[in-house]
Specification:
The chain is of the alpha/beta class and 336 residues long. It contains 11 helices and 11 strands. The longest helix has 20 residues, at 138-157. The mean pLDDT is 94.
Length: 336
């Protein structure tokens, strides 16, 4: 299946591209000129289109003879003007969807996020949970708007959209989020608001890749959104202590009450917005959600309609992930 992948220079997109190549699928990769595609570029069957996703003629060329689209490209972050995230996440998607209208695509996979759900505790929330009209941060706001835009193009123009909502994706090759967590552990910054027994929403990257291929295969997936996790209850403490023990880092001990952490976070965000800060405050709601809120989501729909069965357990996934970070650290790559 000739497939166009956006965001193949990123953590998730690279894993999906490599899985496609193992299946000997011809690939079109649409990436910015500065993107590092490393071993992907130059491989047999890989065609790279360098440029911006808002370049409509380039996007149309990249879509030529393509059967499926896997859209992973996104601006990720926990601070900044919402319009910046819209310009990076919503408008490029609009260009891609416009160019997809009328094409004989079998699937358009849109990589969404469990972050689209309301900022609150979740105890088995499923896809029937309404998405908020307004989020606190620009990234999650743009992810809601992006997913809604993709579904609109499915309804109005028949683009065969499937929205996948993974939780926190971990695995070998993440050089952005996990290193930041590791650095916060090394400096003693990380805490457990509310005690650390709240659920995480983890998904090992190869489990996510499996879900992508299931969504490409199952016709029942079209027009649907799917929550995706490892399907296990994993607490904040379990997740963090796996990292600490694997990398010989001290385990966090501070457990401020959640109400106190919420108040401090509100004050920090208010102050940083008043002064027009361009960098994220050390305490913000995106980080508080990650470490303080119960993030338990149902994956029953993915099990039923996609046949999704996470093959890699959390313990095995974290063992492989931490082994990769130890190797990177030993090789002097500055990760972990």
């Amino acid at each position: 299946m000739r497939t166009l992948i956006t965001g193949a220079s990123g953590f998730v997109g690279r894993h999906i591209a490599e899985a496609c190549l193992r299946r000997e699928w011809p690939l079109h990769l649409l990436a910015r000129t500065a993107s590092k595609l490393d071993q992907l570029e130059g491989q047999p069957g890989v065609t790279v289109f360098h440029g911006e996703l808002t370049d409509a003629p380039l996007v149309r060329r990249a879509l030529n003879d393509v059967e499926a689209v896997i859209h992973c490209a996104a601006k990720v972050g926990d601070w900044g003007p919402v319009d910046d995230y819209r310009q990076a996440n919503v408008e490029p998607l609009r260009t891609l969807l416009d160019a997809s209208k009328g094409l004989a695509l079998s699937r358009f996979i849109h990589m969404s996020s469990l972050g689209v759900y309301p900022l609150r505790h979740h105890h088995g929330s499923d896809e029937t949970t309404p998405l908020p009209a307004k989020h606190r941060d620009g990234y999650t706001q743009s992810k809601v708007e992006s997913e809604q835009l993709a579904m609109q193009y499915h309804r109005d123009f028949g683009v065969p959209v499937v929205a996948l909502r993974p939780g926190f994706v971990y695995g070998p090759g993440d050089r952005t989020v996990m290193p930041r967590i590791i650095e916060n552990l090394r400096t003693g910054f990380l805490r457990y608001p509310g005690g650390g027994r709240q659920a995480m929403n983890t998904i090992f990257v190869r489990n996510l890749v499996d879900a992508v291929f299931l969504a490409l295969e199952r016709d029942a997936a079209v027009g649907q959104a799917f929550n995706l996790t490892d399907g296990e209850r994993v607490t904040k403490r379990q997740f963090i202590e796996k990292i600490c023990d694997a990398l010989d880092l001290p385990r966090p001990t501070r457990t401020p009450p959640l109400w106190f952490a919420w108040s401090v976070t509100w004050c920090y965000e208010k102050l940083y917005r008043l002064v027009g800060a361009t960098t994220a405050p050390p305490y913000n709601f995106a980080r508080l959600k990650f470490m303080g809120l119960n993030l338990d989501f149902s994956i029953d729909k993915a099990r039923e309609l996609l046949g999704y069965r996470p093959r890699v357990s959390f313990d095995d996934g974290m063992a492989e992930t931490m082994a990769w970070y130890r190797t990177e650290r030993a090789s002097g790559c500055g990760v972990g």
